[in-house]
Amino acid sequence: MSKGPGVQKMFDAIAGRYDVMNRVMTMGQDQKWRRFVVDKAGNPGSGWVLDLATGTGDIAALSARSYPQAQVIGADFSQNMLREAEKRFSDSGISWQACDANNLPYDDNVFESVTFGYLLRNVDDAVKVLREVRRVLKPGGRVVCLDTTPPNRNVLYPFIRLYFAYGIPLLGRMIADDEAAYAYLTGSTMDFYSAEALADAFREAGLENVGYKKFMLGTIGVHWGNK
Q: Which of 49, 109, 127, 210 is most buried as measured by Cβ atoms within 10 A of its Cβ?
């Protein structure tokens, strides 16, 4: 069964509290990671930039502020998330568009860069999505991905696993009034690619110069690659 409809419904339901939850469960670190994503994507000049799974628009807005000449699209398949993004960044000049990452409604070789946060663990086939992203990139263009990554099994592993299994769902119940959604999000983290396996998926999709950096005790990874 496809993840799509269930994930779409879940994100529509939590859109109003999504930003607060991000700040709390990442202890305020999520903005730093987004800045790293935008810096890694590079300066597009006056070209087009696509932020997929834009959610409530943070990465897209940061791109627009960092590179005022750029043409920025923030795209998501959750209409409620897009509505929140439009409210938050109504004067940003960003074009907010509904789309499915599996079948992007854009021509080949359009974008200087494509960014996304927390997209790939919510799709059925990450390599297929990465191939679609590669298709819409210009030659030489870069994709940058922010996502969770399962923690290494070191001395901190039991404590991190406890936080994922109990802490984040509890915060979801207290702040977003949706424990089930955040239980799903933590489960999808533990079942997701390791950082090196995701780098291999980038290479399988035809991307080059692939690299990554981990944050937050190895539970967050930023990956990048070029067409």
A: 49
Distance CA 3, CA 125 (A): 10
- What confidence tens digit (pLDDT) does each residue in 57-106 have? 999 999 999 999 999 999 999 898 899 999 999 999 999 999 999 999 99
Q: Which domain holds residue 44?
A: 4-18+27-149+193-226
Would residue 180 count as lying in a domain? no
Tell me the C-alpha distance between 84 and 77, whole Å: 13
What is the distance between the alpha carbons of residues 70 and 63, in angstroms, rounded to a whole number?
Answer: 8
Please report whether residue 102 resides in a domain. yes
Tell me, yes or no, whether 182 lies in a domain: no
Give the CATH number of the domain where residue 40 resides: 3.40.50.150
* Tokens 């404590």 found at: 159
Whether the per-residue pLDDT at 227 is higher than 50: the answer is yes
Neighbours of 158 (CB within 10 A): 11
Give the confidence band of 1 by pLDDT, cuts at 50, 70, 90: very low
Does residue 225 contact residue 210 with C-beta atoms inside 8 Å? yes
pLDDT at 158: 59
